[in-house]
Structure of LacI family DNA-binding transcriptional regulator:
Amino acid sequence: MRQLPTVEDVARIAGVSRQTVSNVLNSPAIVKPETMTRVKAAIEQLGYRPHASARRLRTRKSSTIGVRLDPMSNGISGSLLDRFLHALTERAAERGLRILLFTARTPEHEIEEFRRLRDGSDVDAFVLTSTFRQDPRTAWLLENDVPFVTFGRPSGDDDLGEPIHPWVDVDGFSGSNQATNHAIDGGATRVGYLGFDDGTTTALERRAGWASASAERLGLAGRDLAILALATEDGVPQGNAAATTLLASPAPPDAIVCASDSLALGAMMAAAGLGRNALPVIGYDNTPVAAAVGLSSIDQPLDLVAQSALELLFGETGSTVAAHVHSAADPIHRLLTPTLVARRSTELASVENSGFPLAGNHHER
Amino acid sequence: MRQLPTVEDVARIAGVSRQTVSNVLNSPAIVKPETMTRVKAAIEQLGYRPHASARRLRTRKSSTIGVRLDPMSNGISGSLLDRFLHALTERAAERGLRILLFTARTPEHEIEEFRRLRDGSDVDAFVLTSTFRQDPRTAWLLENDVPFVTFGRPSGDDDLGEPIHPWVDVDGFSGSNQATNHAIDGGATRVGYLGFDDGTTTALERRAGWASASAERLGLAGRDLAILALATEDGVPQGNAAATTLLASPAPPDAIVCASDSLALGAMMAAAGLGRNALPVIGYDNTPVAAAVGLSSIDQPLDLVAQSALELLFGETGSTVAAHVHSAADPIHRLLTPTLVARRSTELASVENSGFPLAGNHHER
């Protein structure tokens, strides 16, 4: 990098002390006009620019938000957090804020990064994703009075009534409830459900939305309901396998609501493989893949999530509001409602084991 | 935000000047032991931490790389740059570097951001993506001596022989050449090509790789070759339409190589719609969708692209090397070779207009 002129260079050229140069920049009222002229001439001659980092030190605002970049996911639903990052970066830019990305392999490592960034005043606040039960990260941030907001509510019973920290979430109950009602509106009488097996609030809420609609509109409950649901890891092959199991049962579902587009794509393939191309399948997250293959899906309003997160951190007008100040008049959480995007697939189905006659294994790796 | 103790607070508590506190922090050798003890006690009492931004001002290194986040793309290939951002963030973290994200709607706006970040010493260097012919951004960075590297070579004739700035690229000629050879190895005698119509180096290189393999192995040239290729915008519907056109010609292709997975997915759908489920189709970028539907695709080594970009900026060992210093012994570009990931699709095909009997339009938006 080229050597930028420093305040010392300006002081030497102007024949004054560093403190005097500093006074010219920060307290011009106390500087004699003649000295001012000399220092300004030196600043111009050298092309000296006071560093923003110095200005930052004075104002104690970095105009920067810290975000941990989640490890790359290979699932087709994994891009949700990337899409959120895009929305957050664009909405933050409208407020003159930038995003500082960092990585961390474990929650403990992430807390170390929080500490480092806090100590360096490198960021004004953090936005966290992928929170989990008894998350040590939010505990540390609360203890250390560091402003933050999470995308995803904390796991616990009374988060809605008395949130322990600011959060924005999208109502998973509503999402799968809408999807299930949509399938029933289309004529389904037994709606299957493919969900996650990770015990998160997300998993529980989405399952509850399906169960509630099935109970209210189809009168299903207890074991009659339970046999229509399977929980699995997220992924296309997992969705395929789970849907195959459901469809092979004595009383198979006539529609399947899924907790992700990956599971839904797998379910579509399973149905097509069994000659049931017409089985309605509804996904979650409205990924580009869902649009490409004509899969109906639940859309999370990520732009509104980003905007809400920034409002909880910095206030509606962009003024700085401490995130953790909580009062009844100033709610510190937002629960947003997703929407169903209904599509008609005309393209995807299976031709059993017909395969593509590409060359053998000698080119595979 | 809470009020952090300042150097003024330390000076007041210790009963010394700001300059003395500064000396304790920066030039302890010139401070009397007794004064040192008093200042250190005040620092401890207040929990004062010298700001990293102040340290940064002294060392003129932000340990930060500026990256413009491209606008969100809805195409299934759009995630390539997101995947590159993940790789860059992780490889940068290994060198103690962070990524500062910003947005810009136009190249001119992006140059304004360069200037602002340069003036503020907020970043050490930039990594650019999506470069184009006569890119004003790289011209500005060169003129202003700002270290940078691009993912994507500059458009021009002699970039390989005499690069005008540091770049890392993945050899598109090799990618589509491998794809075409793979199709020919599998028995194809007329390989169609679906490419981009944007006139970029990327578009030209990828087409050239297909043309070269078709000429060498199948003896096709001139008009016989040209009628097998179509250029279009990127997207699934575009791929579907273009492949339909190619397949309807008097001498249709018996395999199709595509410049993206979106085009390839569209081509698969077109082939299936015409009852040609067995037509080999090969995509580009090896997206999660390609893996999900069993599409063979060309994989760009994004981790190696990120690592190479950092090496060109900061040197192989992590030492700071000016990016724009160019010598024969120190090449400033890297052309990396992609690899073919061959898959066998057993799942995707079309059932003409059978559709999914989801409810009507009243839920659509």
User: Anything to note?
Assistant: Chain B touches chain A through 96 residues (CB under 8 Å). DSSP finds 14 helices and twelve strands in chain B.
